[in-house]
Amino acid sequence: MCHNKHMKKISIRELHQDTERWVRRAANNEPIVITDRGMPVATLVPFNQSASGKSLPNRWEQIKKMKPIPADSAVYISEMRDRA
Hints:
The protein is of the alpha+beta class. It contains four helices and three strands; from the N terminus they run βααββαα.
């Protein structure tokens, strides 16, 4: 990506030393490229609510609505042992 040339580049160490500063700069629409030994490895950019997609469904509610499957694990285990 050629637009990386205009982004501020910092090392992982710099990010660790002053995380709050870099996160605030990224939140203010100033993308930050994180480097590891001079190689770009990540980008810190502002959060975009629309890009995060819709929330996941409440899976626990869906699971509670499912009918239980009658199963006895002891039966399966003994079958597996018999095959061995």
